[in-house]
Amino acid sequence: MNLKDKTVVITGAGGGIGASMAHGFASKGANIVLSDIRPENMEKVAAELRGMGVQAHCVVGDIAKEASAEQLMAEAVSKTGRLDVAVLNAGILRDGLLVRVDKETGKVKGKLSLEQWQSVIDVNLTGVFLTGREAAVQMIETKSHGAIITIASVSMHGNPGQTNYSAAKAGVASMTKLWAQELSRYRIRVAGIAPGFIKTDMIMKDMKADALAKWEAMIPIGRLGEPREIADSVIFIAENDLVNGVILEISGGVKV
Ligand SMILES: NC(=O)c1ccc[n+]([C@@H]2O[C@H](COP(=O)([O-])OP(=O)(O)OC[C@H]3O[C@@H](n4cnc5c(N)ncnc54)[C@H](O)[C@@H]3O)[C@@H](O)[C@H]2O)c1
C-alpha cells in the first residue's frame, strides 16, 4: 500500500510506540487519526504532525468501551473520508506474580488481584477486539482494502509475573491470525508485531539502573529496542501487501 494521503488510525498515540508510529506514518504522507485515553500528549503529537503537512485529528476515548471504539473508527471516516490502516496499539501493564509466598512461614501472602487481571484483559484484549471489529466494519462499508495491525508482545509466549498481560497478548496474536482469514474475502489484511523490550514509559517509568542492566543482559543484541524500530516495522507491514496473517517478533532475539 502506498501510504500517501491514506488515513491511519493509531490507538495509544499519545505514548511511546504509538507517537513514534504517528510520526513515521506522517513522514510517508498519511493523514493520522490519533486516539488515546489521555488528551495532553496526543494534542502535542498532533501539532507536530500538522507541522509536517498532514492532517491530524485527535479522538479522546477508552478503547475498552464499546461506544468509544465505535466512535473512533466512525470519526476517522467522517473526518477524512476513508480508513486504510488501523494500528491497535494501546495497552497497559499491571504486573504481579500469581501468588506470593512468605519464605519464612510458607504461607501465601499475596495474590494477583482480580482487578489487576481484569484491567489488563479489558484494555489489552477486549480493547483490541472492539477496535479491530470497528475498523473492519468501517473498512468493509467504505470498501477500503485496508490493513489492521495489532501490537502483541514476546510475552505472548508466557512471561513469569505477567499472567494477565501474557494471556491478553496471546489472545491478540490468535485474533490477528483468525481475522486475516475471516477478513480476506473483503481484501483486508491483518498482521501484527510482537515487540521485545522497548524504551518507553511503559517499562522505563520505574526502572532502576541495576534492573535495566539485568534486562539488557537478557537481550541477545545487548540493548532495549527504540520505539522507532517498532514504528518502522509496523510501516513495513502497512506498505507490504504480502504480509498477512502473521505476527513478526521484533525483539533483538529475546526469548521469553
Ligand atoms: N514498551 C515495551 O517494551 C513493549 C513491549 C511489548 C509490547 N508493547 C506493547 O506496545 C504497545 C504500546 O506500548 P508503549 O510501550 O508505547 O506504552 P506507553 O505506556 O508508552 O503508551 C501506551 C499508550 O496507550 C494509552 N492507553 C492506555 N490505556 C488506554 C485505553 N484504555 N484507551 C486508549 N488509550 C490507552 C496510554 O495513555 C499511552 O499513551 C502496548 O500494546 C504494549 O503492550 C510494549
Q: Tell me the span between the first and last alpha carbons.
A: 33 Å
Helix content: 40-55%
What's the main sheet like?
7 strands, parallel
Coarse structural class: alpha/beta
Average pLDDT score: 97
Q: Kindly report the name of the CATH homologous superfamily.
A: NAD(P)-binding Rossmann-like Domain
Low-confidence stretches: none
CATH class categorisation:
Alpha Beta
Ligand catalogue: nicotinamide-adenine-dinucleotide
Total strands: 9
CA-based shape: globular
CATH topology: Rossmann fold
Keywords:
256 residues, alpha/beta, Rossmann fold, two-stranded antiparallel sheet, 8 helices, 17% strand, globular, binds nicotinamide-adenine-dinucleotide
Written description of the protein model:
- The protein is α/β, with parallel strands linked by helices.
- The protein has a single domain (7-250), classed as Rossmann fold.
- It contains 8 helices and 9 strands.
- It has helices at 16-27, 39-51, 66-80, 114-141, 163-182, 201-204, 209-218, 227-239; strands at 7-11, 31-36, 56-60, 85-88, 99-101, 108-111, 147-151, 189-195, 247-250.
- Strands 3-2-1-4-7-8-9 form a 7-stranded parallel β-sheet, sandwiched between helices. A two-stranded antiparallel sheet has the order 5-6.
- A hairpin with a 6-residue loop joins strand 5 (99-101) and strand 6 (108-111).
- Helix 1 (16-27) crosses helix 8 (227-239), helix 3 (66-80) packs parallel to helix 4 and helix 4 runs parallel beside helix 5 (163-182).
- It is globular and about 65 Å long.
- The structure holds nicotinamide-adenine-dinucleotide.
- Nicotinamide-adenine-dinucleotide (NAD) binds next to helix 1, helix 4 and helix 6.
